[in-house]
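Protein modeling request. Please complete all fields; requests missing the sequence field cannot be processed.
Requester role: graduate student
Desired output: 3D structure, token encoding
Chains: 1
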Amino acid sequence: MTPYCDWCRSGKASDIHIHHHDLEHGIPPTSDNQLFSRLCYEVLQAGLSWEIILKRRAGLDAVWHDFDVETIAGLSDAELAEITTDVRNIRHAQKAVAIRHNAQAFETLAMDYGSARTWLYGLGETDPKVWQILFKTHFKFTGATIQDEFLMGTGVRIGAHAEECPRYAAALAAGAPWAVHAGITPIQPPTH
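Delivered output (192 residues):
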């Protein structure tokens, strides 16, 4: 098991972590807006605990227009300042500016590749140094830790779940990009 899998099965994790582990962690989002929201959660989490983000997701979603890429890319400085001061948000001006910049980068990637998902999922299992260059080229506030957690959490890189974790099969069945690139045949997750 991975440390996160172990912890979520230990009886020590809160229900909100177990829910995230079982339903989202390692599963590739199916739209650019969902992918973008996952990147934003990682940016907002920097320096904080993941539990804070999980607990505040409803408020974050409301403040950030459900992480709609087009809406966020078009925010004015005044609108961004208003979001930054909203108590439901993680109030950090640099993170807010980065989120708008990253939405604009998602729009550019969508124009160039059809979708940001197509760009990201088409890169395959890339060397970590290459990932760092790609992320530094396109995005803001996405250092190595944010980048690694985002890539693993969205199924781009292997490691979200160990093979013995019950959720490993779900990640494969959802078409986790790391498995697709490795030629691993999807297996059906167990039914409950």
